[in-house]
Amino acid sequence: MNYNSTYWRPTSIQERTSNSAAFDKSLQSILEEGQLLSLLLKLMKAKKAMEIGVFMGYSLLSTALALPKDGKVIAIDPDREAFEKGLPYIKKANVESKIDFIHSKALLVLDEMLGEEKGEEGTFDFAFVDADKMSYGEYHERLIRLIKVGGLIAYDNTLWYGTVAEPDNAGLPEFVSKVREFLVKFNELLASDSRVEVSQLCIGDGLTLCRRTC
Ligand SMILES: C[S@@+](CC[C@H](N)C(=O)[O-])C[C@H]1O[C@@H](n2cnc3c(N)ncnc32)[C@H](O)[C@@H]1O
C-alpha cells in the first residue's frame, strides 16, 4: 500500500470532502472496486448473492448487473429511504427483478436464514459486506456458514482510510479510532482463520476477499 500518498493518509477524510482532486481519486477507486467485484461475480458464475449495507444501491446495482438473468441478490439494510432514492436507477437498468430488498438489521436476517425453517446454509455464492464495521466479526461467523465452499465473502473498508497501518490512534478522531482498533483485530482474525483463503486489496478503502475453503 502506498501509505504515504495523500489519498491514504487519515487526513484524507477531510480532504475527500473539501478537495475535489482527492474526491475524484476516491470516486475512481470506488468505481474500480465495483468493476473488480463485477468481474469476480462473472468469473465465479455466481447466481445467489447477498449484500449487507445497501445505502442508495451503488454496489447493489453493480452486483445485480453482473448476475445472470435468473440470479438473485438479497440486499439488507435498515434504511429503506436511501434504498428507495437509488431505486429509479435500478429500475432504469432493468435489474429490479434480481433484487430482494430486506428492510432490517442484517444480524436478524442472517440468524433467520440459518434457522431450520429457511435452511439457507451453504447456498450463497457471494456476499458483500459494507455496513456497521463493528459487527463484521458477527457477520463473519454467520456468513462462513451461509456461503458455499468455494464461495466468496468481500469485506469493505478494511484499510479504514489507511489507519489500520498506524501504530496507534494518535491524532485520529474518536469514531475513526474505535473502528480502527476493531478492524486491526478483525484483519488479524481473518488472516488466522483456517476456514478461508484471504486476500486484502488496496482498492477503494480496502477490500478483503475471503474464499471459503472448508
Ligand atoms: C457505506 S453504506 C453502504 C454503501 C453501499 N454498499 C454502496 O456501495 O453504495 C453503509 C450502509 O450500511 C447500513 N447499515 C448500518 N447498520 C446496518 C445493519 N446492522 N445491517 C445492515 N445494514 C446496516 C447503513 O444503513 C448504510 O446504508
Automatic annotation (TrEMBL):
One Pfam entry name: Methyltransf_3
InterPro entries membership: Cation-dep_OMT (IPR050362), SAM-dependent_MTases_sf (IPR029063), SAM_O-MeTrfase (IPR002935)
PROSITE patterns the record matches: SAM_OMT_I (PS51682)
Keyword Cell inner membrane among UniProt keywords: no
Alphabetical UniProt keywords: Metal-binding, Methyltransferase, S-adenosyl-L-methionine, Transferase
A single GO BP: methylation
GO terms for MF: metal ion binding; O-methyltransferase activity; S-adenosylmethionine-dependent methyltransferase activity
Assigned protein family: Belongs to the class I-like SAM-binding methyltransferase superfamily. Cation-dependent O-methyltransferase family.
PANTHER family per the UniProt record, alphabetical: O-METHYLTRANSFERASE-RELATED, TAPETUM-SPECIFIC METHYLTRANSFERASE 1
The protein's name: Caffeoyl-CoA O-methyltransferase
